[in-house]
Amino acid sequence: MQWKIDGRSLVAAALLVGGALLMPPAETATAQAPGSVVDDIVGLRVGMSYDAVVALLEGRDDTPEIETAEQWIRQSHGLPTRQLLRASDGVPCAEGEKATNIGWYAVCDTARGRFGARKEVTNEIVVAFTGMPEQEVAGSIWRRTVFAVGKYPTVASVIDALTQKYGEPHIGQTESGYYSMSHRTGATNLNWIFAANSGRIGNDDSLKHRCVNGPKPWFATEHSWSGGCGLTIRAEILPVPSNSLLVQVLNVSVVNQRELIEALGRFEAEIKSAVEGRAQGEAAKPEL
Predict the structure, then answer these.
(1) Residue 44 CA: distances (Å) to CA of 90, 104, 170, 223, 228
(2) Rounded CA gap, 188 and 163, in Å?
(3) Residue 195 to residue 205: CA distance in whole angstroms
(4) Which of 78, 125, 179, 194 is 20 to 30 A from 215 (CA-CA)?
(5) Cβ contact 219:234 at 8 Å
(6) Which residues lie closer than 8 Å to 276 by C-beta, 6 or more apart?
(7) Is 264 helix (H, G, I), strand (E, B) or coil?
(8) SS3 of 129, please?
(9) pLDDT one-digit tens code per residue, 54-112
């Protein structure tokens, strides 16, 4: 079943900020059971409530601007849903300033009108939610870090930091069974993928292929997921255009594919029920 639509322990969870390896502030880290699979991005975890996500982000200094969007992949039909949240730095784009691409990332892009146009963004976190107002649950998380000129980390140091946090990657782009339709030329891709039953995926090439494809490492308006896949963590390391050994952009995403598919189905049914119930209470039946 597939639906289509428009990053070891917390002690070792090093974060890459401005080219330096920094530990996450204690107030942003949420506890995990010893021995459990590391599945967070800077303390944000799939399954967290909207309020918990906002509280954690408000404690960070590198993403001061927090915006929400009513719709992402489910029509709200007039209901005040909060399906997307973006926390970022940067400054607003000038009125009339057009969206453009600078190297690996877009400037002044609004995600098709969902967010305000911003530029000079070096840190961005996007969280997608399912659930009715005040009952939202995080379903997918993305983080983008753009490193400053003169503070580029090496590709090797970024791979090492990701490996310290998530363990040895389950699959990279040079391994058997890997093929990503979203792979960008020059990028280094690392993936940690689990089956829907929470077991690590072995050498089943077809399942590797399905689980890697679809959920992109960066936030976009088009993604797909496979019901046979569970926890999926993807990291994309994008080099400086003039030096393939240094990193300009790091994208990391986390999603539980099956859980998100199931949550989207429930959310769609909840929206339909709420809209139909409201209409029955407000409108008289037509004369036939």
Answers:
(1) 21, 24, 22, 20, 24
(2) 13
(3) 12
(4) 78
(5) no
(6) none
(7) helix
(8) strand
(9) 999 999 999 999 999 987 766 777 788 899 999 999 999 999 898 988 778 889 989 88
- Report how far Cα 168 is from the mean position of its chain's Cα atoms: 20
CA-nearest of 13, 60, 69 to 41 is: 13
Terminal Cα distance for the chain, rounded: 41
- Angstrom distance (rounded) from CA 191 to CA 189: 7
With contact defined as beta carbons under 8 Å apart, do 223 and 216 qualify? yes
Q: What is the pLDDT of residues 165-203, one digit of tens each?
A: 999 998 876 554 455 666 788 899 999 988 887 676 765
pTM: 0.82
- The DSSP-derived string for 31-66 is P--TTPPP-EETTEETT-BHHHHHHHHHT-SS--EE
Using CA atoms, how far residue 35 sits from 31, 122, 172, in Å, is: 12, 33, 24
17 φ/ψ sector (left φ>0, alpha ψ -120 to 50, else beta) = beta
